[in-house]
Amino acid sequence: MSNRPGLKIFSGNSNRPLAEEICRHIGMPLGEATVTSFPDGESFVKINENIRGYDVFLLQSTCPPSNHHLMELLIMIDACRRASAHRITAVIPFYGYARQDRKDQPRVPITAKLVANLLTAAGANRVLTMDLHSQQIQGFFDIPVDHLYASPTLFKYLAQTPNNNLVVCSPDVGGMKMAAAYSDMLGAGLGLVAKKRTSATHVEAINVVGDVKGCDVLLVDDITETAGTLTAAARLLREHGARSVRAAVSHCILSNMARERLSEGSIDELIITNSIPNDPKGLPITILSVASLLGEAILRINNNESVTGLFKVKGF
């Protein structure tokens, strides 16, 4: 008889549809929990079923409102720890504050590290996340981190429309490694758009490295919030003769500014995942589900199996 602890999955309020889809993939019900707020804004959590000795997975993307969703997750972890869960895994499809991962100017915090400390102090035993903004964030944790990639899901979709004139471009220098991986996977050319950020919401694309004239261009990035980098790069690529411009992004936060920029038509299709809930109505957006990827990872973690096979994609 196996001594493996039972499995239970609970969700906060940030992305409950994804949690429900994961449970359908696994073939089990989503755990019953009350996650709400008092009139003064304080979060309240109550786990409505016995989890003593269980392997508990808490799904919560720390997307806007980021502080509120992060606090919900911390309180859920504490509630499970005090209810004697055997192991608590924080499943964070989108890890907020990931872009604050270094001191790039005087007297600023490293908030990505602070969030890691908070999760550990609350009682999380391990973290399951996807496409961190920078790889070194895994080292901010003193607990195990399983880091998945959305690339297998995105690649499966992109491979359905092969193109001999495809060029994969990074919208900035920092994304060249990701662009090179997609270029290798898709058998496409490789390019780069050099940019200069003028503010937190505005970007100026300066030059294109590589030949894109008459080509179909695919921009790849890990996250977009204002779509400034993507749309600026798309406009410059079209000026250099690109026939079409698509973009594939793991995490998309559709702010009002992003909606305005995407509606201008500089990007023919934006391909994103459901790591963050979005309403794509009226925009050229295709949403791909990562429920099966996360669901399989949860099963493997519960069975103490390797998750490496889930992100073994050529180029990574």
Can I get a quick summary?
The protein is α/β, with parallel strands linked by helices and 316 residues long. The chain contains eight helices and 14 strands. It folds into two domains: 7-149 and 291-311, 3-Layer(aba) Sandwich (Rossmann fold), CATH 3.40.50.2020; 152-288, Rossmann fold, CATH 3.40.50.2020.
Description:
- With 316 residues, the chain is of the alpha/beta class.
- It has two domains: 7-149 and 291-311, Rossmann fold (3-Layer(aba) Sandwich), CATH 3.40.50.2020; 152-288, Rossmann fold (3-Layer(aba) Sandwich), CATH 3.40.50.2020.
- The protein has helices at residues 16-26, 66-82, 111-122, 151-158, 176-186, 228-239, 256-262, 291-302; strands at 7-11, 33-37, 43-47, 55-59, 87-92, 126-130, 145-148, 166-170, 189-197, 203-209, 216-224, 244-252, 269-273, 285-288.
- The strands form three sheets. Strands 10-9-8-11-12-13-14 form a seven-stranded mixed sheet, sandwiched between helices.
- The longest helix is centred in the first third of the chain and has 17 residues, at 66-82.
- 44% of the residues are buried.
